[in-house]
Amino acid sequence: RFEVVDQLCVRMDGTEQVCGEKLETDNVALIVVLRFTEEDKDAGLVVSNTHLYWKPSACFERLQQQVLLQRAVRKMQDKYPKYACISCGDYNTTPDDAGYALLTMPRPVTLNEWQLDNLLPQTQADEEDSDESDSAKPLSYSEMAAAGTCAETDESISKRRKLEDEEREIEQQLQRDTQRVEQLVNTMQEEGQVLKSCYGTYADVDPSYRTEQWKGEPVYTNYSLWKGTLDYIFYSPSKLAVHEVLSLPKEDKLMPGIPNDKFSSDHVSLVARFGFNR
Q1: Nearest to 49 by CA among 66, 34, 30
Q2: How does pLDDT run across 230-241, given as a tens digit for each residue?
C-alpha cells in the first residue's frame, strides 16, 4: 500500500549544531517517507523511530537529541508538506518530564521547577553530592571561624578563599547551564510542532492504568527492575486520527519482570491503527 520515497539516518550525537557540544551515546534515529501507491498518491507519512540516551539523569542530553530529531523531521516535512507525521520509539522520558511536555503541550509551555531542575546538565560531582545528606557535609572554614570553633591561620585563610572561588565558579556554571537550558526549551517551542501521544488517554480505556502523576499514559511500557512508561507513538493530530491501540498485557503476565518466556523484551509492544483526517 505504501512505497518508500525518501529516508534518512540521523546520528543523534551530532548535537554540536544544537548546543555547541558533541554527545557520545551512539544513538540514532531513522526516518522514512511513505507514499500511498493507491488512492490519494499525494498523501503519505513521515515516520521516525529512535532510542534516546538511556541514563536517567541525562534529561539535558535527551532534550538536545529531541531538538536534533525534530529538525530532521521538519526537514522531511518541508519536502513533503502534505504528509502526516508519526514519531515513535523509546524516548527514555517519563510522562511528567519536560521532554514529554515540550512535545505534546500547546505553546507556550510552562515548565515547573522540578522539570527545569532536571534539565540542568549533570556532572559526576552532582551525582556524588546527591548521595550525601546535608547533615554529613562539613562546615566551611569561614563558618567554623564565625562559630568560634577554630582560629583562621594563613593555611585556613587560603583554604577558605579557595572554597569561595570554587563556590563562585559553581554559581557561574549554574548561570551558564540555565541559559543553555532556556535556549533549548525555546528552540523546542519555536521549531517543533505539537504532537499527540496515541496512548495518552489509555487510562480512559482501562482505568486500572490511571495514575495522578502520569495522567492518561499507561503505568508502564518498561517492566523490569525499573517499571514505568518510556515508549511512545506520537502523531500529528491535524492530519491523523487514532482508531485503535493495542491493549497492554496485564501486570500478572509480566511479574516479576520481563523478558520472560512470553515476552522477549523488557519493553511491551505499542501498536496503533490510524486514519487520515479528511
Answers
A1: 30
A2: 999 999 999 999
Report how far residue 80's alpha carbon sits from residue 237's, in angstroms, rounded to the nearest whole number. Answer: 17
DSSP state of 122: P
Pairing of the two strands 44-51 and 84-90: parallel
Q: Measure Cα distances from 26 to 41, 160, 190 in Å.
A: 36, 42, 27
C-alpha atoms less than 13 angstroms from C-alpha of 247 in its C-beta half-sphere: 7
In 3D space, the residue among 73, 18, 81 whose CA is nearest the CA of residue 49 turns out to be: 73
d(CA 200, CA 265): 22
Residue 221, all three cell numbers: 511500557
pLDDT digits (tens, 9 = 90+) for 148-199: 555 567 777 778 788 888 888 888 888 888 999 999 999 999 998 999 999 9
Contact at 8 Å (CB) between 205 and 193? Answer: no
